[in-house]
Records
---
Amino acid sequence: MICAAMGKQKIIAKNEEDSSTREKYISWSEEATKYMLEWYIDIRKDKPATFRFKKQHHLQCADALNARFALGATQNQVDRHYRSCKEKWGWVRRAMSNSGNGFDTTLCKFTLSESEKENLSKTAINYLTRPIRFYNLLEELFIDQSQADGSLAADQTTVNVPDDSDDNDGIKEIEGYNFNADTDEDVDSDNIVRHSPKTDLDGKPSSKKRKCEKSNSKKSAKSKVSTTDVAASIVMLAGSLSKPPPPPPIPVQSVVPADPYANLWKRINDLTITSKDKLMIVAHLSKPDQDVLRSYLNCSPDSMLHEWVISFFEQVGGSSTAF
């Protein structure tokens, strides 16, 4: 009797613990989803390709969403919505890689081939063949990550949207799956690891055994940093350091414009008069109102210049005996 009572109490305590960790479903509006994607894009700016969102980032995003939309979202709910958006981008990336599919860049939707439809669930087909909301934001957020480590999974079970539902009514996520939310701060949110029913691509129960999740996490952790990329960065840095510094810029000497009256000044300088008389003549001819006379004497013969010099000194009250 005592053992049975203790066993019953343990079962009740375990059920209460499971129910406390299970959170309510929330319905994500288009405005909230767009705000969340833009928030993550702003955080990823200027970050390296190996950057991954952690638990604290989802908590900060939840605070921002609650402050703006009063969603009452928790860190786990934001984390799951982020993963579901990345899961959908995995569908898009897989459809893009198939040359038999057509893509309308205006409406952002696919025309899937029959062979592609056979490998996808009805949920994925409905999502890809209708206009994909926030396509540009999804591409900007996940394109670098998918190229960096290929961690996007083409799994159709993360977002359990009913097959006959309309995607234009907002994204309502079924959050019944238990994500590893109680792990350390270094949990990588870009690697989708969950405890969900074993299903194949069509959403049907699968009899195949799933590989150990621990080994998958190790592989993804090893693929985060590529030794080839590190070696290439070291070679590039060494090459930049070995290059000689660029030569200093050559100073450009300004060209002094030629003096149109240089010939006149030379002829005055050759006159057999004192330096004081030469400066007096030059000062007089350099006045703005003597422009016509200056141009005339510049073209006149030496005899005319001599006569003008004698006349000039007679007018100023002096005399020159040089001529």
Note: The radius of gyration is 43 Å.
---
Amino acid sequence: PAERSEGSEEGRRNSSAVSSPAQGASVTGSDLEDNRKGDHRDEKRDLRSVLVTSVLNLEKLDSDLYRGEHHWVPRTQRLFGGQIIGQALVAAAKSVNENVFAHSLHCYFVRAGDPKLPVLYQVDRTRDGRSFSVRSVKAIQHGKPILIFQASFQMFQPSPVQHQFTMPAVPPPEELLTAEELAQKYLSDPNLAERSKQGLNNFLAEEVPIEIKPVNPPDVFHRVAMEPKNLFWVRARGYIGEDDMKLHCCVAAYVSDYSFLGTALLPYPNQRVRFSASLDHAMWFHNPFRADQWMLYECESPWAGGSRGLVHGRLWRRDGVLAASCAQEGVFRVKAVGTHSKL
């Protein structure tokens, strides 16, 4: 299984295609005007997102065969699952017509990824119909699959049947601290335990190509049990632009796996995670969006048991439009720890 970003207790607690066929293939003009409000980055001066220039920039080796490299590897030294998902979707999207866009993906992680080797992506053109195209992808290392992946693409088909849930009411990202700023705030506490300092410093040393602003950060020191619900604003670091919606979908697939499974562990602050990994992942794309602008990631876990946990997620544009939905089941093995405070 692919390594989770929250593979240790410290990491979990301290860091707590694409255009929808139903909405059209372009995200320009007034579609995302409200989504741009409050995003004050000078995009022309901002660096091109490393997710575009490196992580999702696959090398073509042969027809329907690609090679992907790594940018960020978790401290546990196993590949990040979101990277493999995103790269597999890039490979799949290269084999379909320009007039179809990903509406869903489903995948199983079957082996751990080796960060010392690149990943090969072999695409099978499973089906091309009049409205839908299906692609199957195997992510391969050491001659064996580490990910089994399928994606479906659809031609734009308008319909009068349209509805969605209501976006949660939360503070805007401009009023919140980033995960890195929260870590610095915790480190300024003179009573902070040495072990906690080490975990926070390790987190700050990582070069994660994602920016996060938690809405309801957990109490990382007093082990307070929380509902299995998590809310945070998220966007890719750097500039991507408006035009390539298939690319935004691939970036969102990468982002969707970050700090996701840890939602199932929020009610259990006195359990230390000895091992955690994602088993499968699914994603549905509903409306146009930009992955380099703030989106609210609403995560909740309806069930956990048998050393597994199920998590559902919704990615909201800041104008209240539901951009994508996600689901994942993961495995985690835990060990009880003391209930004393870390302060």
Note: Residues 50-156+175-336 form a domain with the Porin fold (CATH 2.40.160.210).
---
Amino acid sequence: MPLPAPAVDAGRSSASTITSGMETGSHELTISGYSGTKGLGVGKFIRISVFSIGGHSWCIRYYLDGYEKERANWTSILSEKTIFTSKVRTFTGQNLWGFEHFIERKDLESSCHLKDNSFRISCYVTVVNFNVMERSTLLFPVPPSMDLHGDLGDLLKSKIGADVKFKVGRDTFMAHQSVLTSPSSVFKAELFGFMKDIKKATQIRIEDTEASVFGVILHFIYTDSLLEIDEGDRGVMAQRLLVAADRYNLQRLKLICEDVLCKFIDINTAATTLALAEQHGCGHLKEGCFSFLKYPSNMKAVMATDGFGHMTSSCCPSLLKELLAKLSPSLFKLKLGEAREKKVVNYCFC
């Protein structure tokens, strides 16, 4: 049975989405008349005209005599973000960033970059923009999914709307035709088929099922579960329920009973359980019995029980042949005379 969905209290939920975009641009700066810019002074700069990249405005600061005293012999180049156009921004904690030790003046003046008293600098800027989108949703309380089987169990107990009455021994059971006919084709045929005139009587009498078993059958049909059964009574009740489940064509209940009975297979029950499985077409239960009987010690002990003698005398020969086919012939090395003494039918060992 699927678990019910948890109830959700009223309230709000929120979510955030971060998206990023990247834009790269460049600006080319040409310094003509280099010698004329010398002697500007430490910390003094020339600001180059503003250019735009990635939604921001930028400019370049040219410090020919260095950004500060410690860098007086160096030419410094720094980029400056002059105008902020985005609410979310990070620029290493300040608006200025670049190369304070861009190139030492003596190296610049002796390099091939300085030609005809001029040189050129290319500045590349990549801007990564992060956009944060916030979303808030109002939540409404949703009740958990219905416990339909629990509700039907309460309906069976209350008898509200019950439209059919069963008399089982001295007990009377009230039920609902629409609930009974859904899982059981037998109930459908009896209540809406050839017995539809009988149901008009005050009650329907059940002769082939005990009241305790019929009560468990009704509970299972309504709730898809079994009533609590004492451990000591589970084996016997499982046998009776299997017969009733076969009678009313309740296949799921029948398989549940087979599973229970497989756990009770032992020396004393193996033969009777095998006969029961054969009578009611329980393939899984038969295989469980064969698995137990394949061991020579188990088979020899079971052959000494009254249940085995009853099975060989009452069951159809096909079951005995199937048993012989399933088990190794070496398991039947008992002397024929010993078998007769135990009153075992001879063809079992041929």
Note: The chain is about 35% helix and 25% strand.
---
Amino acid sequence: MVSDSMLDSLSRSFASYVNHSFISGSLRQYPSLEQYYIPSKQERKRFGFCTANHRMTVSSTDNSVDTSSSSISGCRKSALSGLAPLEAVLFDVDGTLCDSDPLHYYAFREMLQEINFNDGVPITEEFFIQNIAGKHNEDIAVLLFPNDIPRGLKFTEDKEAMFRRLASEQLKAINGLYKLKKWIEDRGLKRAAVTNAPRPNAELMISLLGLSEFFHAVILGDDCEHAKPHPEPYLKALEVLKVSKEHTFICEDSVSGIKAGVAAGMPVVGLTTRNPEHVLMEAKPTFLIKDYDDPKLWVALEELDKKEAAEKPAA
């Protein structure tokens, strides 16, 4: 059994490495969003894309994001109010409902070392980020075992089994998740999980978090012709829930996922679970939050409530 202290140390190391690597520009960037969708001026105004018409700069020392406009807080305040009346909220799973990347990294590192991959030298966080994180298992199998794909596929299956064992012991919800859950339930909104994770992983994580009865639908990248960063999974969620993109927002933690949501025509609230702010901002989220306790989120939701109440006809 892996100790809590070991995984806590791994988690801190992983976060530190990700921040350093993205700041130094050593990691590959995701493909341009323009191949899928470009928000119109009207949509930017309505959905509150806070990067529009603002010059953004990044500090290489503290990894913080700054803008040249003092009105950015006002933009965040009204960022979701254009969605009134709100119909649904869509969530990614890994990194959005729970902080799971350190568990994935640990499983790959240990299992690859056991089979003497790379002459028994453990893979680094850099290798994991550049070659494994966020990718489908079929692509990982080709990368790790280019001359024996069936072996690679079997390896990824075994790795996912190890991840599920680790998750059963270590998985924790993102701070404030259950506060947002109650807000959504109190308003009778529809909700779906939209993920690139394999079905057994997604179902286990959702179950461990106590959210099996919360979600009305779970949309998998494997069940779509195109997975994220393509918008298809999020568009399919709208279809299944029978809601409109004009009255739905998304919670995501990755560049790939944010691009998918924006490409589907919806505002995306980005979480800085593992990725630096300036990297996520390149995908054009509506705004970023540290977790679901972040005051920025609740200011935006309060404005949304006010807008919805103002638009209701008098009794």
Note: The mean pLDDT is 82.
